[in-house]
Design goal:
This is Glycosyltransferase family 61 protein. The chain is an alpha/beta fold. It has helices at 2-16, 22-37, 42-48, 61-78, 137-141, 173-183, 211-218, 225-232, 239-247, 259-264, 291-294, 306-316, and strands at residues 53-56, 81-87, 100-104, 152-156, 188-192, 223-224, 252-256, 270-274, 299-303. The strands form two sheets. The chain has a six-stranded parallel beta sheet. Strands 1-2-3 form a three-stranded parallel beta sheet, covered by helices on one side. The longest helix is centred in the N-terminal third of the chain and has 18 residues, at 61-78.
């Protein structure tokens, strides 16, 4: 029966989006099926409204931020959330959960495929926001500890294998030098590229850009998240908790494609996202104008090249 419905929904996706590439229609089909799957819970969600929903996820961080967390928060607001289950060091993301269990030590990207338990489960030209609610990270985690004399600018970089290829979306040392030089007089810059030991890994191997030592030597006024974390380690639960505390006081971000960009989009303000063509499906579905702004109301600027990042920095920051 499931196979029949999936085939039928692929036909519907083809009729609705005839110009979309054949392989991309599978994403639309899967989202259709995930939304129809929610019909099973009409009575529990809208009639009895008792805590029953258990949300269990250990797939990609990006999917968790965009789809799973807002779904879980909707159930919390609806009074129907019973338990959430996730990876190590995710409790801070599920601060609202009545019972969060950290069951998994590693993320498995394949776990996101065929995961029909949430109404939005993958890339799509449209999203269903009927069971999707903004998670108020900024309000919940705002603090006075990580405030500075100048407004904060977070550069959330990454340098890892992408789609089984060498790093694609990242700022190298010359690019960092140009951005820091342009912005350091106006902003307190905080540089964030988590080490592999600080976050739960998936299939994307983290490589070394050697920029931390370079920043310490050439731009000592830039605060490194790794250093700040070590200084505050005794008063935070883990690196994810620490990131939320720092980000909550910030309205300006430069971030990279994937989970790095999704997390920075949770805190309002302006988020410049470097996402070069030829990689993820966000380009094909125009998601930097749909799901990413929806995460907090942030103003998203999609840079397709590093040069475009420089242009946005010059005009906006």
């Amino acid at each position: 029966m499931k196979r029949f419905f999936l085939k039928a929904l692929y036909v519907v996706a083809t009729l609705n989006y005839p110009r979309l590439r054949r392989d991309l229609r599978y994403f639309v089909r899967d989202n259709y099926f995930a939304r129809l799957n929610q019909l099973r819970f009409i009575r529990q969600d809208f009639v009895s409204k008792k805590p029953y929903k258990v949300i269990d996820y250990h797939g990609e961080f990006d999917q968790e931020l965009r789809y799973v967390l807002p779904f879980a928060y909707w159930h919390y607001c609806n009074g129907t959330l019973k338990q959430t289950i996730g990876c190590s060091n995710t409790k801070a993301f599920y601060f609202f959960s009545p019972d969060h269990v950290e069951r998994y030590e590693k993320r498995v990207w394949q776990a996101g495929y065929g995961y029909y338990d949430v109404p939005n489960m993958t890339h799509s030209p449209t999203f269903d926001f009927s069971k999707w609610a903004r998670v108020p990270f900024k309000t919940h985690y705002q603090n006075t500890r990580f405030r500075y004399s100048k407004p904060t600018l977070v550069i959330a970089n990454k340098y890892n294998i992408e789609w089984d290829q060498p790093p694609i979306n990242f700022l190298d040392i010359p690019a960092l030098d140009r951005i820091v030089t342009a912005c350091k007089d106006k902003y307190q810059i905080i540089y964030n590229r988590p080490l592999a030991t600080q976050i739960v890994g998936d299939n994307s191997e983290t490589l070394d850009l050697h920029e931390h030592a370079w920043l310490r030597e050439h731009h000592p006024d830039v605060l490194l998240m790794n250093d700040l974390y070590e200084q505050n380690r005794s008063s935070v639960d883990n690196y994810n908790h620490f990131q939320l505390l720092v980000y909550a006081n910030c309205d300006r971000f430069i971030s990279m494609h994937g989970g790095t960009a999704a997390l920075a989009s949770y805190f309002g303000g302006i988020n410049i996202i470097l996402s070069q063509p030829g990689g993820g499906k966000e380009h094909d579905f125009n998601e930097y104008e749909t799901i990413f702004p929806a995460l907090s109301g942030a103003s998203i600027r999609h840079a397709r090249t590093v040069e475009e990042v420089f242009g946005f920095v010059d005009s906006l920051f």
